[in-house]
Amino acid sequence: MSANVYTIEEALKGTFYRSKTLTGTIEYAEKRDDVFYSDAEAYLVTIRPDYGIGYKYRTIAVRTN
Q1: Is 47 part of any domain?
Q2: Is 46:33 a contact under the CB 8 Å cutoff?
Q3: Cβ–Cβ under 8 Å, residues 25 and 16
């Protein structure tokens, strides 16, 4: 039996996102090499908000260790 292997971008897609100012679903994720977080990787995500129109963009940190 083999395990399914996913990239971080694939794992983020469809994930629920919530912050103080925005709630929605992550539609797209892309690794950002120009942003540095200690012990984490940065990803630019496109979010489809639960309320309102248009897409929103956020940079999130994903710990990989």
Answers
A1: yes
A2: no
A3: yes
What pTM was computed for the model? 0.85
Closest to 8 (Cα-Cα) out of 36, 26, 29, 23: 29
* Mean pLDDT score across all residues of the chain: 93
Number of domains in the chain: 1
Task: Kindly state whether residue 52 falls inside one of the protein's structural domains.
Answer: yes
Q: How far apart are CA 26 and CA 53, in angstroms?
A: 15
What backbone torsions phi and psi does residue 47 show, to the nearest 5 degrees? Answer: -120, 130
Domain containing 48 — which CATH number? 2.30.30
For 44, the enclosing helix (H) or strand (E) is: strand 40-49
Q: Is residue 33 part of a domain?
A: yes
Q: Is residue 1 part of a domain?
A: no
Asked if pLDDT for residue 17 goes beyond 90, the answer is yes
